[in-house]
# Entry
Amino acid sequence: MSSTKLLFLACLTLTFFFTGCSTKDQNKTELNLLTQLLDGSQFFTGEIDTDVTTSCGTASPATSTSTTGTTGTTTSTSSSTTPGTKFSIVSILTFKTRETLSMRYTYDYMQTKGPLNTQQGFILTGGAFGKTATGTLGSVGWSTNGININVNLTTGQEIPSFDIELNLNGYYTESSTSTTTSTCTTLDNVNCTAATSTTTTTCYTINNQTCYVAASGSGTPIQIQGKVKCYAKNVIAQ
# Structure
């Protein structure tokens, strides 16, 4: 075989090698689950299943409320959505090992970290994990490049990709499926609305049909730390 053909085959092999590594790492997850009972090693590793997880999340701009005027004893207010720095993000990620991680958090592209939503927070349940962890304390971080969304849009948009770092605090129970309740409903297939106002209940939908609820103040304390990469191959950046 000529040296030209050998060089071509070598270059082709290297191209496939590096392309394969890049593709594999696009949905890589590495998390530490730190508790009193678990060993805290990086046993939760894997990939996001892009056949089930069709996008990396949904981002909606924050809605601001302003006072427009006062007539007598009546004050008029109005809500408007305008381009700003803050966005509310809901990410529902399913892994190839069948766990589902649901999170609602605040993204501010002027910052490099945002808090979990204090009402909904996060839920990690099912799969090889075999338990349900939930909580409303913690943060989601990102690099200085931010999360891949169009900050000029005033409507909701799907997120095509991100590279985030998690620091979540909550509790876990041995059940691998969170319980459902008729008093926790969803009106828009994203947000859950509890019938009563409470700070010890987290409501979430992971299938756009059933609104799940799990107690965030009971069980064994758990801290989830690590990185999650997501690339949704069928979502086009807006």
